[in-house]
Amino acid sequence: MTEKATFAAGCFWGVEDAFMQLDGVSATTVGYTGGHVENPGYRQVCADTTGHAEAVLVEFDPAQISYDRLLDVFFQIHNPTTLNRQGPDVGSQYRSAIFFHSPEQEQQASAARERLEKSGRFQRPVVTEIVPAAPFYEAEEYHQKYNQKHGRHCGI
After folding, report:
1. Mind telling me the catalytic residues?
2. How many Å apart are CA 76 and CA 59, to the nearest integer?
3. What is the DSSP track for 8-64?
4. Distance (Å, rounded) from C-alpha 62 to C-alpha 56?
5. What's the rounded Cα separation, in Å, for the pair 59 and 30?
6. Domains and CATH numbers, the chain
7. What 3-state DSSP class applies to 134?
8. How far apart are CA 31 and CA 51, in angstroms?
9. Which pLDDT belongs to residue 151?
10. CA torsion, points 76, 79, 83, 89, in degrees to nearest 10?
């Protein structure tokens, strides 16, 4: 039986690409979550007025990959100390966020963030939000598996 995890870590193309590579991840979908507008489109989200983050919904088999391992990857692939920004991408849609689907995921995410803060890996505080999973709106088809379709690598 699969479980779901939802992460926001900047441009969703690169985030999806990172999670797609993992054994135990059965599906990924890019989309928008955490905002106040129903069924937003890419242009709306990019205008930074909907409150949504570009996010990736990850379906995984916990018998093959743990949620803790997904959290490790999440914190490795982006800078969780930059508020509303990843690289050249600026705006709340590019924020660092974990949208938990259960109390266990909330606890694990909080523990992982705390471990990272205490690790000394970053000079600045970790600003990753840990919030309940909200309605997830699938992004337009041309965004799905973007890097794979176009043979590119979009770094985060």
Report:
1. 11
2. 19
3. EESSHHHHHHHHHTSTTEEEEEEEEESSSSSS--HHHHHTT-S--EEEEEEEE-TTT
4. 17
5. 12
6. 3-150 (3.30.1060.10)
7. coil
8. 13
9. 66
10. -110
- The β-bridge relationship of strands 3-9 and 53-60 is antiparallel
Instruction: Output the six-digit token pair for 86.
Output: 């990843």
Q: What one-character DSSP code corresponds to residue 125? A: P
Position with higher pLDDT, 41 vs 156: 41
Number of Cβ within a 10 Å radius of residue 130: 17
Checking if the pLDDT of 112 tops 60, the result is yes
Report the distance separating Cα 101 and Cα 4, nearest Å: 7
At 18-52, the pLDDT tens digits run: 999 999 999 999 999 999 999 999 999 999 999 99
Q: Coil, helix or strand for 114?
A: helix
Mean pLDDT of the chain: 92
12: tokens are 């969703």
Q: Is 97 helix (H, G, I), strand (E, B) or coil?
A: strand
Q: Which two tokens stand for residue 95?
A: 């924020």
Q: What is the pLDDT of residues 60-81, one digit of tens each?
A: 999 999 999 999 999 999 999 9
pTM reported for the whole predicted model: 0.93
**Structure-block tokens of residue 50:** 């909907």
